[in-house]
Structure of FAD:protein FMN transferase:
Amino acid sequence: MGPLFKLSARSDHFCGRFEAMASPCELLIETDNVDRARLLMQKAVKETRRIEHKFSRYRQDNLWYRVNQSRGKPVAIDEETYQLLQFANTCYRLSEGLFDITSGVLRRAWRFDGSDHLPSAQHIEALMPLIGWRRIQFDTESIIVPEGMELDLGGIGKEYAVDRVAALCLKQAPGLSVVVNFGGDVQVTCPRKTGQPWHIGIESPDRENEAHAVLQIQHGGLATSGDARKYLLKDGIRYGHILNPLTGYPVEGAPRSITVATAHCTQAGLLATLAMLQGLQAETFLKQQQVSFWVSR
C-alpha cells in the first residue's frame, strides 16, 4: 500500500493531496510547520475515508448497502445519517421534487460515457415507479426503503465531506487558514494571516485540467455542478447528466457548468444543483438567491 497522502512545501503553505470519492482531494495549509501540516492531513484523510466507507453506494460492507438492500424492512441509523436524510428532505422540498435522492436508479438506464447510446423509453418508464422520496420513511432511529428503491447521496456526499473536514481543521488549528478542495468543491476555514486571498480555478467544461476562470476567495464555500465529462451526444444534441426525476430524462437547457459561492460548501453545492435543474432559468434562479455565481453555457 502506498502513502495515504502526498505533502509538498510551497512558498508560504503546504499542499497535501490524496484520492477519495472518485475525485482528487487537496488541502492547502497556511503554515511552515511540516508536522502541523502532516497532522491535519492525517485527520483529513481519516475523516474523508470514514464518510466514504459509511455512505458509498459502491461498497457491500457498509450502512448504505444495508439500507438499499433492506427490501422494505427497517434499518437502524445514527444521528449523522438522520441529519443527512433531513438535509435530503430539505433539498427535495426546496426543489419541489426535482432534487430526489431516490432517482439514482435512473443510472441503470442512462450511462453518460460520451457515446451516442440513449436508453429506450421503455427502460426509463420501467424505472419511474422506483422514484419518489415521499415513499421513504425515517426517524431518528431507523429508515424504511420500499423494495426495489434505493438511495444515493452522490448529490450531497462530497460537499458534506468537505464541510466536515474543514470543521475538523478549524477545530484542530483555529486561526490557521486551510483550503479543502475535493474535485472543485471547496471550503476555506478562515482568512489568511497575510490578508491575501486564495486563488481557486474553475475547471473548463471543454478542456480537462484547464481553468476557464480563477476566483479569489478568503473565507467560505464554493461548489460546481456541470457535465464536463458526463454526457451523451446524439445527432448533434448533447445530453447532460443532470436528470429530472419527474420525467426520467436530462434537464433541458441546463448550463454546461455552474459555480456558486456561499458560506458553506454544502449550501453552495445544493444551490448549484438546484440551478442546474432549472435549465434555461438557471441564471434567474441564482439571482433570486442573491449569491455570487458563475455560469458557462
